[in-house]
Structures are given as structure tokens and as C-alpha cells.
């Protein structure tokens, strides 16, 4: 008698229901027509899907909307808001790019109504996407306004003094440090805090993408490809480029993530798909900083892409794949096109179903922009 | 008189003044700081039907609590809350989640509050919650009869045999009754305390169980002995039937709710196990009446008093189960059982004294042992 309530019952016991219940089978118990005892709510659809919905989630979604204004950043703007720094010339004629970065404690809303006590670079997670060109001198004035010691550790080539680890560029609260190095090698990189305990400093939100565009002059044999990657060039203008930082949030601090996302906000790009022009190619800068899980991944629906691991080559390291996995800190560039597809909403998400169902679910809304402009002009 | 009133009013006014001053000055401000509010959420009921999963939750936060997201099996899922908005301390709400649950499998739910605190709830085995219609009422009623009325009535059939026995038999049967009641007392307290843990902490379940059991015991003792005499004969049998009836109400609740939540299937083997388990109860009820000759309707009434609550229990348990109410029912049962243990024990002692023997005879000891052992052994049948 004692263990009545907790007992895990094997399924075969369910089969025993029949005999005693006589003519009344469990199935009839299940589908009696009396009204359910919980209150019926006619406004169900409106409450559960305030974004209007695109019919792709079938109930599998977070409920409500994140207040971007309160957060101070918008996941759709993060996709493309490259921070190119303040540009000036060095005495030797080289380019100097200067950035101002502050670390600050800030509560951010990572899913509707769900708040996370984050540590941020410039008040946002991920931090600003720094975008420079190969060979540029990069100077970052880092100020720590947070409550703990922080640093900026860049994935790139630099001296030991500039590594942003305990003993080299670790900044106590209220302190300041200037990181300076020449941007090498070109590729899709990242920066993150390397103060200890490392795991907590990363999963609290101190990371961001660091993109070094190739300098076409340094790669004469593949100058056209290099130019297509160089932000501001004519060749680059036809590309639709987005940065996607795969991350997660452990809201109850049990070393498991409650929320997975790209660019922090769960379901941000499934509730409001990323609009792309069918005619123009797409390039994704994909960075994985997910803590606690060994890998994260991206799977593209109905299409395939070329992949440049770390973005440090001008020829793909993998061709014609639709799923790529990255360990923490790994990153790469994905190139794809929908020009031969019919317009529509195309899914992409982590191919760990768990991550997808906990927020890392996204959509491209592939449209014919030229046709639409024509239509709206009439 | 007016002085007495003054000495009531004055302290009350002072208490109000102290509380007002404390809240206004907030001297503990430095201690509260940035500490997040205490949050507590208890799932009291789970319903599964063609619309998905519905949970009734009770909040227990230091401040009004909001449920911002719901995960089912590690996936964020759409849900509606009725009533909407933040839940005050001890307030309840229904969450309706249109989730395609799978018959016979386990589902894990996680409720998240704004601070990211998670509250887990597991549905061990998903089965459709029975709906209240004539068919299921009849079926569950039959289960209640088999668990309650049938065994008690069958147990009573030993009455003629008991009558034909001598004084030793009478003492043995009384002791047997004490033994079975002792088993029921421990079992009832166990169930009550286990349910108390599942109830919302705000109810202070375990304290409530002990208080209600003690109060029930005191009231029943007082009512039973209102004429200044210890209970015997039919009136003692009635008390035993009442105590066992209250226990069977709890047992019915447990069976009904366990079936409704899918934690057990009502196999015929299990129900027959309960029938056998409760058989001894019938013997216990008629034991004090061995020296009288009550009419048949008395037996019928006692069987109904002891057995019918099981029917009510199964009904309530399957349709409207809440752990705190069930804990309360078990606590009342425990108090009632304690009362009849005292009364039957007193009768046993009186009987022994009349014969100038120690009440703690070998007969009594073996009777108590046999009663408890019979209950223990037959309980193995209902352990699943």
C-alpha cells in the first residue's frame, strides 16, 4: 500500500484493466463525451501564438514575444549590424580600426518573459560583431563595468601579452585594458571572456563574432573570391550575409541549458523568418559558443551548402552538405543559394532535435524581391 | 468587564502599531537586497484528454508568480493559463497544453518562471483521464464495492463461528482486531504523510496531518464516552466500522487517483487483492458483538458504514483528486482508527480483568500478531 503513488508501472499492467471493468473498456473511459473539468478558453489561438504564426511549429514554440526595446538589441538587427570600428590611417599607411567595448551586468529576456542575469559586451548577447580586413591594425579599448573580473580573448594571431587570459589582459571591475594586434588570419572567428571560472564567464553571455575579411591584394590567385567576402566591395554587395552565433542559457544554473538559440533569443527567426531575396546568394557566418553540450549543429532544409571551416580558406573545405556540426569555439562560413527554388518558407535549425525544440529553430522567407518591388510600385 | 475588554484591545492595537512601523521603516532592507523571490509551484492535478495535457498548479511564492514558458519533454510548447496573469500565494490556475501525448508512455513537464527557475512534473504513464459519465461511475462504483463492501461482508460471515467459541476465542478475536487496526494506523499515517509531501508546502501538510488526526481522535473519544462509559457491544462495533470506513475512503481515493494518473492499472488481480486484504476488517467489526445477538440489519448497516466510503473514495479520487484533501481524509481516518484501538484494547483489558487474568496473555499476543500478520501478508497482493 505504502508505495501506491510513486510506483512506475509497466505497460503490461494496463492490459489488465479489461477483465474487471466488464463491458467498459479503457478506450471508452478515455473518450467519454463529458466536458473537460478545466476551463475552456476561446482565445486560445490568440494567446498561444501572438506572432500570427507561420503554421510550421504546430504548438511547439515559446509563447509570447520578447521585448527587444527593453533588451536594447533586436535579434534581426544583430544578423547584419557589423561593427567596423573607427577607421584611421597609421603612419605607415596601414588601416587602424579602433573599438570601444565595455563589459556590463545586464538582465536580458532570452525567451518571452524569461529573464537571464547576463554578463554582456556592450549590453548585448552576443556582443558586437567586429568586422575588420586582413592585415588591419585592431585596437580595442576594453573597460570593465561589471561586477567580476573579465577579459577579451580573441581567436586570432597575436602576442601572449594580448591573449586576454589571467595574467595578460585580465581586467578587474572598474579597470581597463587596450588589446592591440594585426588582424590575421582572415576568416570567421570569435572573441570571448577568458577569466575564470571559464565556463560561467562564457555561458553568462561574454562572447561575440570576430570576422576578418580577406584582402584581395594578398590573394591574387583567388582575388574575385576574396573580393566577394570583403565587406564594402561591389562583389560583396550582391551577397546576403548574416551572422549566427549558436548559444544557450542555463537559467536555473544546473549546468544544463533551458534555452538554445542563435543570437540568444529563442525562436526569434521562426516567429519572424529572415527575409531573403531568391535571386541573391546567402553567406552565413556561423559560430558555436554553446556551453555544457559538446557540439551544436546547423541543418538546412530543402537545400545544400558549401562550408569553409573557420573561414580561413577561399575554397570550400566541404562541398554540397546540408548539415554541419561544430564543437564549442568552432566556426565557419556557409554559402548557399535558393535561385532555383520556388519562393517559400525554408527551415534551418540544430539537428540535435533537443536544441531545436528548446529554441534553436529558424526560417528563411525566400521571396522575389524584384517582383515584389514591381508589385508595390503599381 | 470594561477593564477586560481594554486588556484585549490594547495588545491588539499595539501589535498593529508594531507591524505598521516595521513595514514602514523596513529595517531588513539590507538583508533582502538582490535576492530573487522565493518561488514554489505544486502540480495538484493532471488531466489528459483529446485536447492534450491540463495541469492545475498552485503557487506558493513570496511574491505573485508568473509562469512564462512550458516545456513538454524538453520542447517549448504553446499553452494557455486560466485565469491569466500572476498567481498570488496559494492561488491556483489551470494550464492547458495542446500536446500530443502518447498512450502508456512517460512525459516530463517543466514550468519556467521569469527568473528561469524550473519546476518539473512527471506523468509516469500517460492514460486518458476518465470522464464522469454513467458508464465510468458504474464501473468505478463496482470497484469501490469490491474493495469495501464485499470483503467486510464476507469477513462478517465468521460471526457464527466466533460466537460458538469460548472466552479465549473472544479474547483472541478482540486482539486480532487490535492487530489489524494497528496495521491500518501505521499504513494510514504513512499514506497521509506521503500525500502531505506532495501537497503545496503552504498547507504545511505533515503538521496538518498530525493535528487533524489528534483532533479527530479527541472528538471521537469524547463523543464515544459522552455517557461516561467505555464503549462495548454494538456501539464499539459502530466505532470500529466508522474508523475502518474512513480508512477505506482514503484507500478508495488512492485507488481512484492512482488509476486516473496512470500510476497503476486497475487489473482484476489487484482489485481482488484489495478484497482479500480487507477481509479481516469484517471480522474486526463484529468481534465486540460476539456476546450479543444483534439483528441482521445492524450487520448490514455496519457493512455499509465500513464499506461504502470506498465507493465514494474511488469516485472522488478518479475525478477530483488533490493531494492535500486526500492527506486530510487519511488523517481523519488515522485519528478514528486510534480511537477504536484504545476502545477495543480497553474492552480486551476489562474482559481479562473480569476473569482475573493479565490482559497481555499469550492469547492476546498471538491475536495481535495474527491480525497484523494477516494484514501485512495480504498487503503483498496490493503492492503491485
Automatic annotation (TrEMBL), chain A:
Keywords: Copper, Metal-binding, Oxidoreductase, Repeat. It comes from the Bacteria. The keyword Oxidoreductase applies. GO terms for molecular function: copper ion binding; nitrite reductase (NO-forming) activity. Cu cation binds at residues 150, 155, 192-193, 201, 351. CDD domains: CuRO_1_2DMCO_NIR_like. The keyword Oxidoreductase applies. Homotrimer. InterPro entries: Cu-oxidase-like_N, Cu-oxidase_C, Cu-oxidase_fam, Cupredoxin, NO2-reductase_Cu. It catalyses: nitric oxide + Fe(III)-[cytochrome c] + H2O = Fe(II)-[cytochrome c] + nitrite + 2 H(+). It comes from Modicisalibacter muralis. Residues 111-215, 259-367 form the Plastocyanin-like domain. Its EC number is 1.7.2.1. Belongs to the multicopper oxidase family. This is Copper-containing nitrite reductase. Its cofactor is Cu(2+); Cu(+). Residues 32-64 are annotated as: Disordered.
Automatic annotation (TrEMBL), chain B:
The keyword Protease does not apply. Keywords: Membrane, Transmembrane, Transmembrane helix. The chain crosses the membrane at residues 140-162, 169-186, 206-223, 230-247, 253-276, 296-321, 327-349, 358-382. It comes from the Bacteria. This is Zinc transporter ZupT. It comes from Modicisalibacter muralis. The lineage of its organism: Bacteria, Pseudomonadati, Pseudomonadota, Gammaproteobacteria, Oceanospirillales.
